[in-house]
Amino acid sequence: MLRLIVVGVSFLTLTVVLIPVQALAVARRWALRRSLPTRYHRLVCRMVGVRIHVVGQPATQRPLLIAANHSSWLDIPVITAATPVVFIAKREVSTWPLIGLLAKLQRSIFVDRERRHKTGEANSEIAARLTAGDAVVLFAEGTSSDGNRVLPFRTALLGAARDTLASAETDEILIQPLSIAYVRKQGLRIGRSERHQVAWYGGLDLMPHLKEVLRTGALDVVLTWGEPVAYDGRSSRKELAKALEARVRRMTVDALRAA
User: Fold this and answer.
1) Tally of structural domains, the chain
2) What is the DSSP code string of 228-243?
3) pTM of the predicted model as reported, rounded to 2 decimal places
4) Mean pLDDT of 30-57
């Protein structure tokens, strides 16, 4: 209980101090708007007790779309702590207390997944961010899993890569596969039957899960960057999604087995 209080107070203090700074950076379009979230999430991970082990490295070439698997709310601070990014998130997130504000300040792109006719509009916004030099993270499964497996990658938002080619002065866009695997808790290997303690998926309530993670801490996560794929708009989106899915699944399996 004491740890939960200390972590909670530290998190809220840090957040309250940095919110106006990031808000000003976003409004003024300072370079700080990209780097501050990375510094913030590194401190958050340290407070929570998340140790990040990185394999490979994020691509430096732009435009860059990152296709990742997704199993927990922790994925956001873990990825952001590794490199400056913006996320594609479901529109409901924008209405969540505090989390919605933080997502907006990180300049997340909100997508209404229930209205397929809005996909083209969302792709245009994603393309604009990619063209402007932001690395954009797409949780390509379209939902979160139990952390033991990688779900099929959806193809709809990969259309943003094609739209970027049409709007930017470039012949190709890089799409980089990224695997996130939670492997140890308090120094002990997390088994299949225990990984739900870290994963947040399905109908799980956020607050009880959040409190449990903050209370226990000491989590080890492996972040594996795959070889980027150069996309020129000519290959099938379905084939591309399957190829990215296979790479992320292999990297996730390797990380879980090596733990």
Assistant:
1) 1
2) -EEE-S-S-HHHHHHH
3) 0.93
4) 96
